[in-house]
Design a protein that fits this description.
alpha+beta; SMI1/KNR4-like; five-stranded antiparallel sheet; globular; SMI1/KNR4 family protein; Knr4/Smi1-like_sf; Knr4/Smi1-like_dom
Length: 172
């Protein structure tokens, strides 16, 4: 992973420390899946990955922790119309409002796609399962076979996140 990460950018930020992971989890109010922790602890604090690259976990500017807090804050202030479920950490911005996020309640760290374009109020329709696990999602990136690749097979469609409606109704 680190070799591919180094090959995609001139200089990676240093990995986060165990203390920084603890700080992020304290701010978020939930634990990160082990694979996500290893990624930030052993590869780098973001700055690599598919297309627009992973957010840093912590730090200045746009980070996974800050984006999560913004999305949850917006969700809570939107007249009780929740669009962002608790414990789903945004890790990458695909552009056009779309985000990749890790379901931190999933032991494997399922990767979800938030695609809000054209959604007005039934936010569960904006959520899809990109990969059942973060490890599988990363393998897809490493092999160059992700849906976002220029010559990707367009035959498969992502399936809706079936627990999305229930998770959104939980509020915080």
């Amino acid at each position: 992973m680190r070799l591919k990460a180094n090959a995609t950018t001139e200089q990676l930020p240093p990995p986060v420390t165990t203390e920084e992971v603890g700080q992020a989890e304290s701010i978020l109010g939930f634990h990160l899946p082990p694979v996500l922790v290893r990624l930030y602890r052993e590869a780098a604090n973001g700055g690599f990955g598919p297309d627009y690259q992973l957010f840093p976990l912590l730090g200045e500017g746009r980070t996974a922790v800050n984006v999560y807090r913004e999305e949850r804050s917006t969700a809570e202030s939107d007249n009780d119309v929740t669009h962002w479920p608790a414990d789903v950490l945004p890790v990458l911005d695909w552009g056009c409002g779309m985000l990749a996020a890790v379901d931190c309640r999933s032991p494997e760290g399922a990767v979800l796609l938030f695609e809000p374009n054209g959604i007005d109020d039934e936010w569960h329709h904006a959520w899809y399962v990109d990969s059942e696990s973060l490890a599988g999602w990363l393998e897809t990136w490493l092999s160059g076979t992700g849906w976002y690749e220029e010559d990707a097979d367009e035959g498969g469609e992502m399936r809706p996140w079936e627990t999305g409606r229930q998770r959104l109704s939980e509020g915080s």
